[in-house]
Amino acid sequence: MDKEVLLQMTDICKEFPGVKALDGVSLTVKRGTVHALMGENGAGKSTLMKCLFGIYNKDSGHIYLEGNEISFKNSKEALEHGVAMVHQELNQALKRSVMDNLWLGRYPRKGVMIDEHKMYEDTKKLFNDLGIDVDPRRIMSTMPVSQRQMLEIAKAVSYDAKVIVFDEPTSSLTEQEVEHLFEIINMLRDKGCGIIYISHKMAEILRISDEVTVMRDGTWIATEPAKELTTEKIIKLMVGRELNNQFPPKTNKAGEIALEVEHLSGQYSLLHDVSFNVRKGEIIGLAGLDGSGRTEVLENIFGIATRKSGTIRLDGRPVLNRNARESIKNGFALLTEERRATDIFGILDIRENTVISNLKNYRGKALPVMLDDKKMKKDTQWSIDAMHTKTPTQGTKIRSLSGGNQQKVILGRWLLTKPEVLLLDEPTRGIDVGAKYEIYQLIIDLANEGKVVIMVSSEMPELLGVCDRILVMSGGQLAGEVDARNTSQEEIMTLAAKYV
Ligand SMILES: Nc1ncnc2c1ncn2[C@@H]1O[C@H](COP(=O)(O)OP(=O)(O)OP(=O)(O)O)[C@@H](O)[C@H]1O
Ligand SMILES: [Mg+2]
């Protein structure tokens, strides 16, 4: 039997200055189903959802919830009518407690006072129902991004919504948390909710969704039952052509030893006695489970995590890398995993976001307080072109770019510091399939110029497709090393479990 229609959006149009973000898009979501929304970075997915949620005013089109036409003026109204959204960008009051964030704007009251006790008990109950183990009084800033993201999910559920939108909910979740989220989504589906799920992770989409709608350049392309789709079919619908190769040809050649890391141990992490060398022009992958110490290796090399012991040499010369500034000066760059939460300066424009880690390079020769505008423009343009960043101008505020395009700006920022050693933590997270290829190409080009690249990735095919050697971390230690051309996912998984 066909399921009943819960939400219908028809012919939605939305224009921003210089961008037609939505051009007659329609979407129908049925009760008790998960509907995936897919498309390249900047296709209009988040914008469509923001029109539903009342964050943006649509220019034209209609939205019906259970057959009644709706047009929410703001997110409060949407929530009151049973439409909730977990946003791509976290927007939380970090200095406040978990429960403050959860009930902000709808505190339970006792007379004129906030009923703290009820708020605590309600939070406890909600977390219990969802299997979340967090103290409601904990201050947000003390929690990792992944837990804060789980909290955002709990908040959406707490509104008892009929329609819940998840906009790239798993971008910072650990594998375990993803499983947990899927349990929650299945529970909501069984309750009869309509779920809209946005993600760039094919495997997730094929696993969790009932139907898939693909958008391209602000238009509707197709809606299909998930069971009739494959990764290849989805990619073709998304990019509008066959994408034969997911990875560019590997043309880089390893030269002499450039980076030597010896007996690296972390002060406040489990990282223990990690040693390895990397050659010029070599691309090294760091594999392992969540929490195995992959990110810690990068953070310790870059000096933003405290080292207990260990030495680092670049081209035979010892480098201390005691903090980020010193590391940048020594020719290192780190693209962090949590860049979406920590590295984007929302109120600044693309150009400012591009040059910000590298300002000394733009100081005028005669007058160092003056910045060389021409050079900043030229470099920013290089970054936009290299990464195919979709933006009207360099002067556009970064927060008005789509999530994936913001990420490209941050990657460009680090490439422009002209690092000798590029440390990349999940470089293609949140990036669409087509743009991934371009980023792989950039990584290989950098290796061709003799740079050292070390990348952490949870996507095994990516490590196998781009890297030369893969170091496998397990329980904070180096469990082994494999040749990327001559290994298997099984071999890597076995090593990853060595010290668990
Ligand atoms: N507030 C805004 N001001 C100006 N332009 C905007 C604004 N919000 C979105 N856009 C533009 O609308 C287009 C669609 O963006 P949207 O965020 O909907 O993409 P998306 O499909 O969610 O992409 P991603 O996968 O990267 O998150 C982009 O070109 C973006 O730059
Ligand atoms: Mg988006």
TrEMBL record:
Its main location: membrane. It is found in: Cell membrane. Pfam families: ABC_tran. Residues 7-242, 252-500 form the ABC transporter domain. It is a peripheral membrane protein. GO terms for molecular function: ATP binding. Gene3D superfamilies: P-loop containing nucleotide triphosphate hydrolases (3.40.50.300). SUPFAM superfamilies: P-loop containing nucleoside triphosphate hydrolases. InterPro entries: AAA+_ATPase, ABC_carbohydrate_import_ATPase, ABC_transporter-like_ATP-bd, ABC_transporter-like_CS, P-loop_NTPase. Its EC number is 7.5.2.11. Part of an ABC transporter complex involved in carbohydrate import. Could be involved in ribose, galactose and/or methyl galactoside import. Responsible for energy coupling to the transport system. This is Ribose/galactose/methyl galactoside import ATP-binding protein. The gene is mglA.
